Amino acid sequence: MDSDSDPDGSHVSATPPRDPFPPPPRPPQPPPVSLKVASSSSSHSKPKAPNPSHKAPTQSSLPPPPSPLFTNLPFRICESKPVVFSSSVSSFARLRSRASLTTSDEKLKPDGADCVVEPPPVVVAVNAPPKPVRRKPPNLITDTITSPPVKPPVFRTTGNGEGNFVKLNLNGKRGKKFPSKYKGVSKSRSSYAFRGKRYKKKEADGQGESLLEEDSDLQKQVEDEANGFISSVEDAILAVKAEASDENLTKLLNLVYGYDSFRDGQLQGIKMVLGGSSTMLVLPTGAGKSLCYQVPAMILPGITLVVSPLVSLMIDQLKHLPSIIKGGLLSSSQRPEEATETLRKLKEGIIKVLFVSPERLLNVEFLSMFRMSLSVSLVVVDEAHCVSEWSHNFRPSYMRLKASMLFSELKAECILAMTATATTMTLQAVMSALEIPSTNLIQKSQLRDNFELSVSLSGANRMKDLLILMESHPYKEIRSIIVYCKFQYETDMISKYLRDNNINAKGYHSGLPAKDRVRIQESFCSNKIRVVVATVAFGMGLDKGDVGAVIHFSVPGSLEEYVQEIGRAGRDGRLSYCHLFYDNETYLKLRSLSHSDGVDEYAVGKFLTHVFSTETKQHEKISSLVIESASLKFDMKEEVMQTILTHLELGEVQYLRMLPQLNVCCTLNFHKSSPNTLSARNTIVAAILKKSHVKQGLYVFDIPAVASSIFVATTNVLAEIQTLKMKGEVTYELKDPAFCYTILKYPREICSLSSHLTKWLTEIESCKVRKLDIMSSAAVAAINVSNTSELSFGAKQTLSLQSRILDYFNGDDKCDTPSKTTQNCAFLRADIKVFLQSNRQAKFTPRAIARIMHGVGSPAFPNSVWSKTHFWGRYMSVDFRVIMEAAQTELFNFVDRNAALAT
Ligand SMILES: Nc1ncnc2c1ncn2[C@@H]1O[C@H](COP(=O)(O)OP(=O)(O)OP(=O)(O)O)[C@@H](O)[C@H]1O
User: Minimal CA–CA distance to 298: which of 229, 238, 380, 245?
Assistant: First the structure.
């Protein structure tokens, strides 16, 4: 970790916060002692009521904090003339030199005396008119005023620490001691340790005994404090159980989290859940949605299951659970021992909140465990927009989270779906899948109002523009910054460029080893790294309060993505800066990439024929589809095939049932007994011998085929060969990851099914493109805001983007936005003709040709091969559909010409 910090970084982290009246820090946590432990203890010393004078000063009780005005944007990003899409865009550097002429910047520094910012006159709350907001100043590195000391309340530990995360040893630091149960009471502990040293010396002086007594007094005091804390939490829980009043809930909140009041929407959500009503909760990023399931989890009798799309997100959420709530995690990427340990704790009733991936949740064994012995009070669907194919982040596995399944299989009593970014259409889809009545929607503004949003038009000099931005006020003073890019290579390139220019930056993307990613995130959170240059892989669920700026190096794929990413900034409520570099080339590149998941009816038909082709139409037979070869054969990405299969399982007709993914090809080597001897006493080995072919003395077979032939599950076959391996009888190797499924019903005709599926997938593809167009048009509109009224250019850009975002989330996102692609091109057809003639050996579809013309690879036409063609990416600016139509015509002509030549 040390290698990540450099002199620049340590300077950044050492600088005290600028704000003389900082918002209360995340309150200290109580000692990590579970309710279960507490209930066995009878001697509770009642806690002292937290002394109000010990609380951190709240915003309302203090003079208004200094805050910059909108007009303090450091530069005028662009003149208010319409954007012209050409490569010769105005450079940011030139724009900045124009900006330096505006004098207001100098006068209105963000740390300047008590200026209170009036909020922009835009409705930011759906249900409420805009209120004047007192903005907190941004987090800056040049702060010189130290914060007033904040005395922690008595029973809470300092910081949230590692909480449950460490106890479950999820960080993999095996061999390290678990932190002390009373780790939180750090002061007492350290003085205890110190005294331990003194004790040795004093012992010699004959004073050891009295010190020993003193130490045990301290230990007792710590234990009493912990017990007292638990006792008061238990009392507060009992009070809420008796009456879930605002007062009782607020008491519990204060006790466990140290917060004085609930934020907008929290109390409403908690009460709905406690009342057993399934609820859809839409609150902005950083609004505190997690609290809406954590508080009920303390009250409700059964387990709270939290379904999350990403393991990193789950780990983060587990880490942030208050220590009083015992949590656990189950995901498919876990080691078996970890999963076993979590399951044990679940069965013993130790775990109250279980984070689980959707795949794991729907695992047959998992479901049966719940059915048999565990009761689920609440199922939380986090990032619930993933349920809908109309969201920016659709996950096929989330499609399985249907209310019918959650209620019938898990016997869940209530569902809480949460998101910060969902359009009306997405919300409808989510609520319908989860059977949440429209009356149970709690929706607040989907955008916080502490962002200063800006956009500039950029071009070939984007890196330079970024550097200029980061070296100008206020960015140069901001302590923590995230720069979002679209491509992995950009993160390395830009972070290096920034480092070369003395900015402490690190690149982050999903291609990095997990331990490096964890290290970078930790270094960023502890301010050892100032700037993280990341792809979308960074930040989901990241709750670092003092991120002062988010910069988009490239246009995001949708307004949802933009809102999620800027949502990492200003989570402490302070004013934060979000700048977006818009460039036409990236927009076109992303638009092309939006077509990479598209499919044709022809390919879907071929795929379905394969899925439903079994020698004998045998029901309950386990079929498999080897991912790599199928992907090549049908020219479809793995996710697309998974989406189709999931639809076949969960659509109006259930054609099949998905089984866990598996490496299906097994190569077996017999070592001790001969294969025939073993098969005589083992039915699975007998079936293996029947279904294998022998290659160089090794038996090669398909696991699902063997399992089907003797009517057992694939897991039984795997378990058996594993047992034989333990006995030294065999060794084996597995390969070919595959989708496995059992057919329940054969479609009457493949044609109409493939046409129906293609229509659905094409709508999803168009939805993706439309989202990018809407994002792009919002950015361009902000660049083009006129600068005639008294509002500053920065304020106008903020207003422009805010209103676009809110309109989008509240309105009809199906409306068409004019595309910036060209609809025709004189040489297109002639070029396609030449392309076909020079690649006679390949079998193209119109889509494959359009992808090549757009410079987008696919499984059957990979970049590595096709980027060498002269036409690669040549028609990126021409609408994809226009190219497909031209390609179709030319393909027909090509076939006709060849047929004519042949006759
Ligand atoms: N009532 C409250 N008062 C003060 N702080 C709060 C309150 N509720 C939550 N918080 C704090 O707000 C921060 C953000 O909470 P949380 O991570 O739950 O947000 P979120 O809505 O899930 O955001 P995202 O959608 O971006 O993940 C946390 O640090 C949390 O402790």
Answer: 238
Q: In the chain, what is the straight-line distance between the N-terminal and C-terminal CA atoms, in Å?
A: 72
Report whether 420 contacts 443 (CB < 8 A): no
Per the structure block, which two tokens stand in for 306? 């939290």
CA distances from residue 245 to 122, 237, 249, 252, 444 in whole angstroms, order as listed: 34, 12, 6, 11, 22
Q: What pTM was estimated for this model as a whole?
A: 0.73
Mutate to test the pocket of ligand 1, among 257, 325, 392, 542 (most ligand atoms within 8 A of CB): 257
List, for residues 12-58, the tens digit of each pLDDT value.
Answer: 222 223 233 334 444 444 444 333 323 333 333 333 333 333 333 33
Evaluate whether 314 touches 382 at the Cβ level (below 8 Å). no
The Cα 371–Cα 373 span in angstroms is 6
Q: What single letter denotes the amino acid at residue 544? A: K
pLDDT of residue 657: 86
* Residue 283 contacts residue 309 (beta carbons within 8 Å): no
H helices present in 526-613, as ranges: 559-566, 584-593, 601-611
- What ligand 1 atom has the least distance to the C-alpha of 567? 26
Q: Residue 136: what pLDDT?
A: 53
Q: Coil, strand, or helix at residue 464?
A: helix
Please work out, in degrees rounded to the nearest 5, the angle formed at the alpha carbon of residue 759 by the alpha carbons of 758 and 761.
60
CA 289 to ligand 1 center in whole angstroms: 6
Pocket test of ligand 1: the residue of 291, 355, 564 to mutate, having most ligand atoms within 8 Å of its CB, is 291
Amino acid at 398: Y
Q: Are 539 and 568 in contact (CB under 8 A)?
A: yes
Residue 686 corresponds to which tokens in the numbers above? 């007998």
Q: How far is the CA of 266 from the centre of ligand 1 (A)?
A: 10
Query: What separation in Å is there between the alpha carbon of 421 and the centre of ligand 1?
Result: 15
* Residue from 289, 381, 416 whose mutation best tests the ligand 1 pocket (most atoms within 8 A of CB): 289
Strands 622-626, 730-743: pairing is: antiparallel
Nearest CA to ligand 1 atom 7: 288
CA 263 to ligand 1 centroid distance, Å: 9
Q: How far apart are CA 706 and CA 711, in angstroms?
A: 9
> ipTM of this predicted complex?
0.98
Ligand 1 neighbours by CB, cut-off 6 Å:
26, 259, 262-263, 266, 283, 285-291, 420, 541, 543, 567, 571
Please name the residue whose Cα sits nearest to atom 25 of ligand 1.
Answer: 285
Contact yes or no for 420/567 (Cβ under 8 A): yes
Residues 6 or more apart whose Cβ sits within 8 Å of residue 715: 660
Q: Where are the alpha helices (DSSP H) in 614-743?
A: 627-634, 638-650, 675-681, 683-691, 703-709, 714-726
Q: Using an 8 Å Cβ cutoff, are 374 and 345 in contact? A: no
Which residue's C-alpha comes closest to atom 9 of ligand 1?
288
How many C-beta neighbours within 10 Å does residue 866 have? Answer: 21
Report, as ranges of residue numbers, the positions in the chain whose pLDDT lies below 50: 1-135, 142-208
